[in-house]
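Input for the complex:
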Amino acid sequence: MGVEIREMVLADYEAVVALWRSTPGVDIRPVTDSQDGIERLLARNPGLSVVAFDDGNLAGCALASHDGRRGFLQHVVVAPALRGQGLARAMIDRCLEGLREHQLGWVHLDVVVDNEAGMAFWQKAGWQPVDTLTRLSRAL
Ligand SMILES: CC(C)(COP(=O)(O)OP(=O)(O)OC[C@H]1O[C@@H](n2cnc3c(N)ncnc32)[C@H](O)[C@@H]1OP(=O)(O)O)[C@@H](O)C(=O)NCCC(=O)NCCS
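Predicted:
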């Protein structure tokens, strides 16, 4: 595959957010997905998030982070023209490799409830819904 996967840096932000905006199923958050929010995420989690470039064009991205106990994957997206070539799997493998260095028990991710294709993708890759927990949240 001629696609390069590398660490995401803040200079990638504009291209990355454009890919998110063009992708149904990606829930873009005003604070945490702003440029400042992504700058904080990258600073707190050096080297964990990745981007993929194909001939200078953004082909995909995956945000990875941890809180010292659990790892998180967010906004795993591959550009439509490059899907089905193993790119998401390669980006996720790279993220998991980075997270494994931090002695975390589990990695979590959220899937928007009506994103059936996204859910099928994760379950095919061995990720399972947690049926013993219900996620509770409130705004800060
Ligand atoms: C989901 C997504 C990231 C997959 O990217 P991709 O690069 O096409 O995935 P890969 O080529 O790495 O596929 C890896 C495996 O998953 C399978 N797969 C890919 N998409 C799938 C889907 N929608 N349903 C079931 N299996 C899927 C592939 O067949 C492949 O299987 P294999 O291991 O037997 O070869 C991409 O379709 C996308 O960006 N979707 C929109 C955003 C999204 O929904 N992201 C996830 C939500 S949290």
